[in-house]
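re: ur msg from earlier - yeah i can do the pyridoxal-5'-phosphate complex, just paste it... oh wait u already did. ok heres what im feeding in:
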Amino acid sequence: MEIKITKTTTPSVMPPEESLGFGKVFTDHMFIMDYNDKQGWHDARIVPFGKISLHPASTVLHYGAEIFEGLKAYRRADGGVQLFRPMENIKRMNRSAERMSLPLLEEKDALQILETFVRLEERFVPKSFGTSLYLRPYMFGNDESLGVHAVHNATFMLIASPSGSYYAEGINPVNIMIESEDVRTVRGGTGYAKCGGNYAASTRAGERAAKMGYSQVLWLDGVERKYIEEVGAMNVMFKIGDEIVTPELTGSILPGITRKSCIEVLKDLGYKVSERLLSVDELVSALESGELKEAWGCGTAAVVSPIGKLAYNDKEYVVGNGGIGEVTQKLYDILTGIQWGKIEDKFNWIHKL
Ligand code: PLP
Ligand code: COI
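and the outut:
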């Protein structure tokens, strides 16, 4: 695939790494490519970062036809740059596209776009451990008419943001509230797709939780409001006795790439990992009996994030001793070790640039 590159004439200065935060500053360029039924994907280009214009009737503005991905470019200790399982993001983006009636990407083209873009923006991949260049590929329906139907015109874009940790807490435990009013999605809905609408519908509960001092909400299933699903921007895992439990992928949960990687690491370490239904009642009784030893969330932005406290129905429970559990720490060390190129990648997950 040919990618036309127009470089900026006003390069920006990379901000100090300790001031980055998450998703606040952007690199100098962005990737754009257009789709229509006749030409397929065409006009792939990298242009200076800037505002885009849309037709006022554009599908995305009315019917929310939008999907996205999140992955990171990491700086290795030897100065090189690498991606973590990028094909998993590309495959998931195509599953999301299929669900939302958006056009699919050619996998090899999508990889070429990521590689070309990160190479061009390499100076924005920060150097300190824990920081990275967060990559945000996204696609939206762009028909210029108000009829409701599968889209015939779409746009794919890629932007990037040099970032530090997602939570202000960093690797320190976050406090999470179990949400019993709003639900995120239902089976048969769009939960397994990474579409913008899932997030738009989740912010109300997130804001309520934030007002009460919690970082995010833990969703229950949308049918019975009984089974644990996932947190706003990460999947969840619990160590109950000697078993590590994570909610099974019922269709309403995002199949996280970090989740999948954690399961593979844990199994490799010899832990018993169960992907199964976990009811909130079982979780609360494990909290009350002290059987719940550890809880953590996992995701690209959040990495591996220990959960210190869980609140449910006006009651607050401390998980384990409220600190970082042993398994959580081990997982964090192994995953971040591989991602930042500090330890051997025995799983073959790294894609060097
Ligand atoms: N669940 C939700 C709702 C998310 O937004 C994310 C983040 O991408 C995850 C889980 C974790 O997925 P991944 O590990 O692929 O980043
Ligand atoms: C990610 O972890 O990449 C995400 O997409 C989470 C997010 C919505 C910030």
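cool cool. The pocket of 2-OXO-4-methylpentanoic acid (ligand 2) is lined by residues 70, 233, 299-301 (CB under 6 Å). ping me if u need the other ligands too
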